[in-house]
Structure formats: structure tokens, C-alpha cells
Write a structure and sequence with these properties.
Two copies of one chain form a homodimer.
Chain A lengths: L8 H9 L14 E10 H13 L6 E4 L23 E5 L2 E6 L10 E7 L2 H9 L5 H4 L6 E7 L9 E9 L4 H9 L10 E2 L26 E6 L3 H9 L3 E5 L5 E6 H4 L3
Antiparallel strand pairs in A: 1-5, 1-10, 1-11, 2-5, 3-4, 3-10, 6-7, 7-9, 8-9
């Protein structure tokens, strides 16, 4: 199974399609962009597209498909969004009903698929620049927190921004800002530095999603907008149906991270 | 009338609202961002929003309003999109039917307004960096050309990209790319350099819109995506109704150009 890590995106997607890989996708197909998935019925699609347009930091759109289309064009040429992610979350009226390995039987002609950028892309660039990425060092999931920063509402969609936190040594904070600024389509520059209470986070040791990580003396907690925001919004807004990736179980695209860097 | 040039956006919009200014808006409220306007009925709104998402260089979205809403929130707090532009183009089935000074009588509850970035913003940054902007030097409208570069289609919308051309001395081309790259929300970096024939332009002396400008010996013609693209698309796709600004007669926002620069 080690070999899959070095595989090309299309080969890994093929294994996932056959349910031969059902685990998180972090570390797979290094160099290639991974994406968050949100699927909504057409009646909610304009409002959610508007929500993403108004909240590009938590919801950076990489690709949106026409109603009923499950094959991507921009992110890959041979993928099937109904089968090519390891795990999907099914939300009905805002409640997580099930986590499943494929959604072929659930697919409807009016489903609109949204693919959003994922911070895996900029973490690779940070590591190349020798900026520590603590949760990778500690082999954990990135800590995520629900903040008191409101997203801009759109139609029926509204809710708080979810952020990820990475502790950064003070002399590397500028470089971390510069590097992530190049990746506007994967959440871009940080949204907050330092005191977590200012954005409504009570305890950095108790993330709302993911795992706590070590913060060393003098390190600055730095916060980036997070692609889990749409799932928090869906739990709050309670549309009849919404299908997403299961956190960490992303869509692996054919696009190089470097292709996502600002032009 | 000279005073208007130095006025604040809200004062200028107020004069425009009273039809006391009906001319092009270039040079007004320097430092503040101006925007292209596209209004479509709700039935076309999702497809056009998707078209903009897929074609961010010609169609960089600054703000999109919910159906029926004519007051902007992000770009200004007291504007009325039905009256605050000096001139509007009314297209019916792709044909320019009329150019009018306000659209209050035409407004319908299902109209969706799209405001797109305008290259006036990056031209100001180019001038500050002593990069020549020829059409400003020659007091002309920027030359615009319909290319053979296809936009990515979305729903019913498709058509060729329209570009603007600015002749740049070779030793300033890199700087022009760097500066305009900072302004992704106003068309960003150029899409083509040099030979116009490569992108389907036969004669730089005969622009499809705007005026021809002098190209000095050794200068490189540099091409940027242009906000007139949606009007070219509407002429081709022929939706029942589409209302736009009249070229050059833009919406003047309260947002500083500097606020549009990449974060």
C-alpha cells in the first residue's frame, strides 16, 4: 500500500473508485492539489455560489459543475465525483446522517457540485521554505476552530468562519504570510495572529475538529480560513440535503499545486 | 464641472443620479475603484455566475447581489444601481436596443446585478510606477479587440475573450506584469504579448471598440483581458434581456483601488 503514496492522481482515484483506499488522502500524490467537495440540489446552488463568491477565503472555488454533471473538466479529465473520494458525508436538514464510500445511488439530475481549494497545497510550499507545519511533524490532523468571525451571508446561507491554526516562530511569520498569499485559491493569507480569544476561540488545546498540537514557547498561533466552513454552515442552515467529502478524505486532482499559485 | 473630478465617490454618484453628469467616468474620484455592470434576469443568473467563476480574467467579480436588490453592500453603502451610472445599455435578444440614463422604470424583482472589476484600477498603479499608459497620454479610450481566445462556456454562455492593448517598452514589461498581477480582481496579469495575429487580431490600428493608439518603435503590444467580454458574449448568446453600463460609463465605488490589490 506504500506505493499508492507515490502514484499519479488518476491511478489513486482508480484505487479509491474500487474502494481499495478508504483512508484520509493527506500525503497522497504529493505536488498535486486536493479539493473539498460540496454537493447541493439546484434550488440551493445560486445562493451557495454567491456565498462562495462573498467568502473567498473559507470557500475558494476551484471548479463548479453544471446541474447533474459529476465529471470534472478543469481539475481532472477522467474523474467521477460520485465514486472518486474515499468517504462522503450525507447531511439531511443539517444533521450528519451517514458517512459512505460512494454516492452513485444517491445521485440526482439536479445535483450541483462545488470543489473548493484545500490547505494541503500551501502546506507543501511552507515545508519547502522550512516553515514548520506542526500537525504534520506530529502526524496529526490540523486543529480546526469555529470562530466568532461571521461569514458574509448570501441567500439562505450564513454562519461563522472555521479556521485552522498553525504555530509559527515569530521570525517566520512574514514568510508564512508571503507564501500563503500566493495561494488565494487555497485560503490565501492568514485571517488572524496571536490571541485566540479575539476571534472567539476559548482554548487552543480543544479544537472543534481535528487534533490539538504543541505550541512551543514564543511561537505565534496563526489562523487561516478553513474549507470545513461550508459544513459548519450547512449544519446551521439545514438545507434538505447536502453531500460533502468526509473531512480529510479529499478529491485528488490532476492540477499541480504550483498551478494554483497566483499568476 | 472641474470640481467633480476631485469629489468623493458618494458626491459624484449623487450628481450622476440627478443626471448632472452623463459623460464617461475615467479620471473621476481618482484612487477609487470603478466597476463594470451586468444585469440579467434570475433565470440566467446561475449560468452567468458560473461563467464568471470559470473566466475570472475577463469577468472578475467584485460583488453580486441577490435577485431584486439594487443597493450594493460591499462596494458602497448608499448607491442605487438603477440611477448611479451615467449611461446604461439595454440589450434585447443580443441587440443593443437603447442607451439610457437610468433604468428605474425597467427594473424587475428578479433582476440580478453583477459588478466586475475595471482596469482603471491597475492603470493608476502603472502610472505611479512610471509605466506609460498610452491611451491616457493621448487622451483616448483604450483600444479593445475581440480575440480568438475562447472563454470557458457555462450553461448557455460562451464566446470569445475581449482584450485591451497597451504598448509597453521592453524594459518595463516585467514591472507591468508584476504590478497588474497584484490586481487579480481587475483582470490581473496580461494574457498575451507581442504578435496580435496569434490571438486572432488582424490590425492593431483598427480596434473593435475604443480608439487606436500610437505604438512606438520597439514597444511590445501587451494584452489584458477586458470587462467588455460579457457584452460581446451577450451579443452572441442573445438572452431575452441584459442591461449593462455603457462602455466607459462605470459605477464609481467607495472601495480604494489599493483595497483591491492582492492581500
Amino acid at each position: 500500500m506504500k506505493d499508492i503514496v507515490k502514484g499519479f492522481p488518476k491511478d489513486i482515484r482508480s484505487l479509491i473508485r474500487k474502494a481499495k483506499w478508504t483512508m484520509p488522502t493527506a500525503g497522497l500524490a504529493m505536488g498535486y492539489a486536493q479539493a473539498n467537495l460540496v454537493i447541493l440540489p439546484e434550488k440551493n446552488a445560486f445562493d451557495f455560489l454567491l456565498f462562495c463568491q462573498r467568502n473567498p477565503k473559507p470557500c475558494p472555488l476551484l471548479e463548479v459543475l453544471e446541474p447533474g454533471i459529476y465529471r470534472t473538466e478543469f481539475l481532472s479529465s477522467n474523474a467521477d465525483l460520485r465514486t472518486d473520494l474515499p468517504r462522503y458525508n450525507i447531511y439531511r436538514k443539517g444533521r450528519l446522517e451517514a458517512t459512505v464510500k460512494e454516492i452513485k445511488n444517491l445521485w440526482e439530475k439536479d445535483f450541483v457540485s462545488f470543489l473548493l481549494g484545500c490547505s494541503f497545497s500551501f502546506e507543501e510550499a511552507m515545508l519547502r521554505a522550512k516553515i514548520p507545519v506542526r500537525h504534520i511533524e506530529e502526524n496529526k490532523n490540523v486543529p480546526m476552530f469555529i470562530t466568532n468571525i461571521p461569514c458574509k451571508p448570501a441567500g439562505g446561507f450564513h454562519g461563522p468562519m472555521v479556521v485552522t491554526m498553525r504555530p509559527i516562530p515569530p521570525d517566520k511569520v512574514s514568510r508564512a504570510v508571503q507564501i500563503t498569499s500566493r495561494y488565494a485559491s487555497v485560503h490565501g493569507a492568514p485571517v488572524h495572529f496571536g490571541d485566540p480569544v479575539k476571534i472567539g476561540i476559548k482554548n487552543l488545546r480543544k479544537p472543534d475538529f481535528g487534533d490539538p498540537v504543541t505550541i512551543k514557547k514564543d511561537e505565534v498561533p496563526v489562523f487561516w480560513a478553513c474549507g470545513v466552513t461550508p459544513q459548519a454552515v450547512v449544519m446551521k442552515v439545514k438545507p434538505d440535503l447536502c453531500i460533502t467529502h468526509s473531512p480529510g478524505h479529499m478529491f485528488i486532482s490532476d492540477l499541480l499545486n504550483e498551478e494554483l499559485a497566483a499568476l
